[in-house]
Automatic annotation (TrEMBL):
CheW-like domain: residues covered: 7-147
PANTHER family per record: CHEMOTAXIS PROTEIN CHEW, CHEMOTAXIS SENSOR HISTIDINE KINASE-RELATED
SUPFAM superfamilies tied to this protein: CheW-like (SSF50341)
Protein name: Chemotaxis protein CheW
Coiled coil (residue ranges): none
Signal peptide: none
One of the Pfam families matching this protein, by short name: CheW
SMART domains linked to this entry: CheW (SM00260)
Length: 150
């Protein structure tokens, strides 16, 4: 089966000066900033939890989770509510920028590198305009988070 012509929609966002994307089909909603309730003894990347219409949702500082400097958390931040592999979480990002339509064939696998927290969560790389963006593998990111937090 050929991927030629198949279009994937990617939600682009910033973490500091870095650009990342996620498959838009995994995004449930975008929320304005609301400070999560911290949990004692939680991993550094787990900012806390929020009540999302009666469901307790873990909220991750995505920058910290990916080994980048932590986000300050404030009115300018956005929480991306995403679901993958049966797990849901809020992802704190600096800003959401665009939805990009990319041919699946234009998505390239990342180079085989050491299995650190960032590279195992990258499913693809793509050139959008003149900038390379990383497409996050939310299933890997969220399943690892659940294992790490247990």
């Amino acid at each position: 089966m050929s991927d030629a012509g198949e279009i994937v929609e990617l939600l682009a966002f910033r973490l500091g000066e870095e650009r990342f994307c996620v498959d838009v089909t995994a995004v449930r909603e975008l929320r304005s900033w609301g400070r999560p309730t911290p949990l004692p003894h939680a991993p550094a990347y787990l900012s806390g939890v929020i009540n999302l219409r009666g469901t307790i949702l873990p909220v991750l500082d995505l920058a910290t989770r990916l080994g980048l400097p932590p986000l300050a958390g404030g009115d300018r931040n956005v929480i991306i509510v995403a679901e993958a592999a049966g797990q849901s979480a809020g992802l704190i990002v600096d800003a959401v920028s665009d939805i990009h339509r990319v041919e699946r064939g234009a998505l390239e696998a990342p180079p085989a590198m050491a299995s650190d927290g960032q590279t195992v969560c990258i499913s693809a790389l793509s050139l959008i305009g003149d900038q390379m963006v990383r497409v996050l593998d939310l299933a890997a990111l969220l399943s690892t988070t659940v294992v790490d937090a247990a």
